[in-house]
Amino acid sequence: MAAIQQSLSTSISSSASTFLGQNKLRFRNQNVSMPGKTSGIVRCVATPSTEKTSYKTQVSRNENLAKLQAGYLFPEIARRRSAHMLKHPDAQIISLGIGDTTEPIPEVITSAMAKRAHELSTLNGYSGYGAEQGEKQLRASIASTYYANVGLEENEIFVSDGAKSDISRLQVLFGSNVSMAVQDPSYPAYVDSSVIMGQTGQFQKDVEKYGNIAYMRCTPENGFFPDLSSVPRTDIIFFCSPNNPTGSAASREQLTKLVQFAKDNGSILVYDSAYAMYICDDSPKSIFEIPGAKEVAIEVSSFSKYAGFTGVRLGWTAIPKALLYSDGFPVAKDFNRIVCTSFNGASNIAQAGGLACLSPDGFKAMMDVVGYYKENTQIIMDTFNSLGYKVYGGKNAPYVWVHFPGRSSWEVFSEILEKTHVVTTPGSGFGPGGEGFVRVSAFGHRENVIEACRRFKELYK
Amino acid sequence: MAAIQQSLSTSISSSASTFLGQNKLRFRNQNVSMPGKTSGIVRCVATPSTEKTSYKTQVSRNENLAKLQAGYLFPEIARRRSAHMLKHPDAQIISLGIGDTTEPIPEVITSAMAKRAHELSTLNGYSGYGAEQGEKQLRASIASTYYANVGLEENEIFVSDGAKSDISRLQVLFGSNVSMAVQDPSYPAYVDSSVIMGQTGQFQKDVEKYGNIAYMRCTPENGFFPDLSSVPRTDIIFFCSPNNPTGSAASREQLTKLVQFAKDNGSILVYDSAYAMYICDDSPKSIFEIPGAKEVAIEVSSFSKYAGFTGVRLGWTAIPKALLYSDGFPVAKDFNRIVCTSFNGASNIAQAGGLACLSPDGFKAMMDVVGYYKENTQIIMDTFNSLGYKVYGGKNAPYVWVHFPGRSSWEVFSEILEKTHVVTTPGSGFGPGGEGFVRVSAFGHRENVIEACRRFKELYK
Q1: Which of A101, A138, A260, B64 could form a disulfide bond with A308, CB atoms 3.0-4.6 angstroms apart?
Q2: CB contact under 8 A, B175 and A198
Q3: How far is A188 from chain B (nearest CA, A)?
Q4: Residue A313's closest CA among B165, B109, B172, B13?
């Protein structure tokens, strides 16, 4: 039942695909009329017989968007899942793909949101525009919960509607003239947002990489930490730990090397700690635990995977005052301007939820949900281990990175979907370094995870 | 009491200013170490005596951000308001400045949000990632409520966290190589986001304009509709009606001319209809009421000023399938990619609120609140009329545009703040065409509006 519900909600998400199909119309008249001249309506005959106007504006398509390959990964997976549903309408599809939380949000958190919603109907409880940077109390609470030991202050925290939005706002902040490095494999929003901002060259099909991006290969051989001696200097380094998709958390020693590398190169490190609360060994939970990081790093984080806020939308970005551009100008000051111009703050109701998450009861409840997903992770790891597959990640992250050496990851994705009706994520969707791997997410109801693992055992026994 | 509460919430909003002040430190060592070399920590002595490290990254500041003048308008007003509060701690400050809604959200709407929040704690009611484009039901409801007569469909609607965010996403969509035109005066986010994306030249202090933007002057003389024969061709035309700040709504005849102008030039019109529900004459409420607009226009809109959602955050952008780039590629297809890469959908709780807004009861309740603000508008208009000032707008918008011929609008702003403790908005903050005007917002509790008007009468009698 729950599996079916999940299916339905995802099929909604691919609603745009229907629309996207329509540009397959072949236009008979491709003439471009000149700017400044009156362009009449030029009629064309579409295939096969629908009549359409073919008026075109004289605005050129943004060439950076034309560089992007296919769709953004996760909508593409949703599309394939919907196609599978059409083909197998009776299948009990289980999604361990998109990395979407499935467990109810603890009541201590939702009741705070409901309370704030009700208060908005009262004269004293109503509030309009909040600070673009987030409510002072929430910023203070994030600072004291996550950064008290490293001395980051409330006014170095910018509350957002989620890490994905902030990654793009950071790209707008940096502009088109920066170079960037990224873990390979990694969460696709780093690369795609860089392409959109025009920081990259064209996609090179032979190597499956964009020009002008340094791909830092992370493999089982190097313990999923890049060989920095082979990484060229770039302005920006995106680094996600625990990593999505490999599930690998960098150690203190590794992060110390990374911070030193950034410092040596005068680079800015954008550190994504969206999964830090899944860490259960002594790997750092924040880049700011590393001495000197405040002078080189920005940290992006999120309530999504902690509190099940993937739909509620709340996150934050920490930019220390000590982080300066080459001319001495504080990075946070420009980011503040971006936030004030391009954003109006996260929803006040979501912010009330964030505050409840960081209360003692809320925090404990969040950690219980994290613990639940970690048990799922163990079940998935045990399953693939028992089948003789090498698995990585899992320990400090809700993702299991399963190795299928020598196989195409899209092919494995399709095989699993076709034969077990389980949605996973093909490793190559995260970069060429993900080829030969499949990411299995531990976000799911327990019974679905167990059932998926039963089907995996049947398929790969 | 209410006035004081408003003051407190705004003082939070300027919390970043404290931080921003700190870059006034003068660094002793401005040497730039070279990329690739190990830069040691360079100590410097800050003024007057605090010791600070002055390590700088080797990343150049985005030159587009350096072009921006001072702060974004509204945080700047909040800053001046806070300074005024410090100077006059006992003053009863009334804000008719920032355009922020003040009246409670009708219960039919907040209870739908509270219900959705509670449901997130249940197994069946929980939902994670929604569609990036917005929930299907809300998109359908927006389409049927606002666009049924013009034939726009659900999949041409993209739900957002507000118009301001979408304006920036549209700028990212268009990229750096487009030229743009804007009403002068207008909502500053159009120009500022254009500057950030690198579409403009430097700010030219003599004319108070950025290079490479066409400012379309809107004055009492031209009925606040630009003389299009003097406007050069640009790729993008931003147009807000009812206009913020002038409060003027363009007529059907004027908008027909505007659409024809866009068509003649092959331009894309970005039409901001955030105040359309304040229209009470027969001015079009949507650009798509104009024949042919679907081939040239995008419409950005918002629940903020209708439902008091300035803090809840919900809006939408309509991009018709028929809108094509010069190569025939659909604009909406690229915007869909932007939305999927840079955004993860509006908060599901806010979307539940949006759906309630568009229910019969919710819609009526929203219109009642709009009606309340419109009564405020009348009070403000009557006041300035009685004092012999020429006022514009007001009829179809919650803004009154008061003419102070020959005077600096910042000077009038300061005079009003200093002598009446009322916060307004200086017209020149909206562009050079706003000089000599002050915008008075009708968003406020009735008793505050009446009290502000009493003080205006005292000051300008």
Answers
A1: A101
A2: yes
A3: 9
A4: B165
Contact A175 B62 (CB under 8 A): yes
Architecture of domain B73-104+362-460: Alpha-Beta Complex (3.90)
Q: Is A240 on the interface with B (CB under 8 A)?
A: no
Contact B254/A at CB under 8 A? no
Q: Does B297 touch chain A (CB under 8 A)?
A: no
**In sequence order, which residues have a C-beta less than 8 Å from that of residue A217 and are 6 or more positions away?**
A184, A226, A227, A433
Domain coordinates in residue numbering, chain B: 27-59, 73-104+362-460, 107-361
- The residues in B 417-446 lying below 8 A from A, measured between CB atoms, are 443, 445
Contact flag B59-A268 (C-beta cutoff 8 Å): yes
For residue A31, give the 3-state DSSP assignment.
Answer: coil
Query: What pTM did the predictor assign?
Result: 0.90
Does residue A199 belong to the interface with chain B, where contact is any CB pair within 8 Å? Answer: no
Query: Residues of A with CB below 8 A from B36's CB?
Result: 233, 264-265
Q: A130, B192: Cβ pair inside 8 Å? A: no
Task: State ipTM.
Answer: 0.89
Domain B107-361 belongs to what topology? Aspartate Aminotransferase; domain 2 (3.40.640)
CB contact under 8 A, B130 and A104: no
Q: Is B33 on the interface with A (CB under 8 A)?
A: yes
Q: Is the peptide bond before A48 cis (omega within 30 degrees of 0)?
A: yes
- Asked if the Cβ–Cβ distance from A342 to B13 is below 8 Å, we say no
Tokens encoding B361: 């009861």
Chain A residues close to B296, C-beta within 8 Å:
57
Cβ of B329 under 8 Å from any chain A Cβ?
yes
Per-residue pLDDT tens, chain A, 461 aa: give them.
333 333 333 333 333 333 333 333 333 333 333 333 333 333 333 344 344 558 999 999 999 999 998 767 887 898 899 999 999 999 999 999 988 999 999 999 999 999 999 999 999 999 999 999 999 999 999 999 999 999 999 999 999 999 999 999 999 999 999 999 999 999 999 999 999 999 999 999 999 999 999 999 999 999 999 999 999 999 999 999 999 999 999 999 999 999 999 999 999 999 999 999 999 999 999 999 999 999 999 999 999 999 999 999 999 999 999 999 999 999 999 999 999 999 999 999 999 999 999 999 999 999 999 999 999 999 999 999 999 999 999 999 999 999 999 999 999 999 999 999 999 999 999 999 999 999 999 999 999 999 999 999 999 99
| Contact map slice: A 65-94 vs B, CB within 8 A | 65-66, 68, 71-72, 74-75
B295 touches chain A (CB under 8 A): yes
Task: Looking at the complex, report in whole angstroms how far the Cα of residue B302 sits from the nearest Cα belonging to chain A.
Answer: 12
Q: Taking CA atoms, what residue in B is nearest to A174?
A: B62
